[in-house]
Amino acid sequence: MKTKVLIVDDSALIRAVMSEIVNSQPDLEVVGVAPDPLVARDLIKRTNPDVLTLDVEMPKMDGLDFLEKLMRLRPMPVLMVSSLTERGSEITMRALELGAVDFVTKPKISIQSGMREYTDIICDKIRAAARARIKPRTLHPNAPAPVLPALKSPLTSSEKLIIIGASTGGTEAIREFLMQMPSDCPGILITQHMPEGFTTSFAKRLDTLCKISVCEAAGNERVLPGHAYIAPGHSHLMLVRSGANYMTRIEQSPPVNRHRPSVDVLFRSAAQAAGKNAVGVILTGMGKDGAAGMLEMKQAGAYNFAQDEASCVVFGMPREAIAVGATHEVGALAALPGMVLGHLAAQGGRALRV
Questions:
Q1: Which positions carry 4-aspartylphosphate (predicted)?
Q2: 27, 3, 141, 179: which is closest to 79 by C-alpha?
């Protein structure tokens, strides 16, 4: 059975190109196109699509307003496809917070040489969206923060590191994880599959929400407690050791597992540079990026956690890491911060120096 796709975009040219891309796949089918959310609303009722692709900037109703109403009244997989997400990455972050599964930028019609790669990317994201677990958003901004284990020794913060990898659904999973981190937590390195231009806004958004400091990694930074460093969308992020300090490194070497930044690259560098001082966390995402690197972390003495299937948007990357035996514990997203800090607290300050 084919995955049914409804395309919503105010540009007739983009609707035509997107339809051609989707209908070129044997397992995907466009069941309708709409120039605005008002037409889309009726088509949703008539065609019952599996996935909706949505432009943010449209006439008659703002795309974000439509997305908010849709996720409240009829939650369904939504993939943002918009030129506005390229220019206004902050709006993209808001769309993901409202419940969009993922996003891509609009195809550059004048650059045909890259269309094959673009076709693969968008069709893979549609397939992932179709499998995604969509839940109504229940935001409780005034809810009390959970009580998490206290770290027993400052050595735990300065010597231990938390290494995180994620893909589809990961922006919100990372936000939920980091918002529970105390200001004196170990330094955190993060690779989230995200295009260039969006990781800066992602980091800035997290920095305003979290107790810890969050930034886009620039390379050659000392990894400090209470700080999180996010891989820039154009480069791999790696951990290196320099004397007594951990440092960040970024490289524009070829993609790994079709990704740059790649989770495997970050995890492998953590295995080599930190060994038993690293704690690995693999979150929601499609594909298998991170599984092999996490296994290397485990073999080097790291302790690893994976997000469970029930709380993942897409249980691809965690499933692969679990399947190869790379993880020690599996838990729901809401429980993972406590599990990670509980493990670190149990370690105390013992055997943390390298």
A1: 55
A2: 3
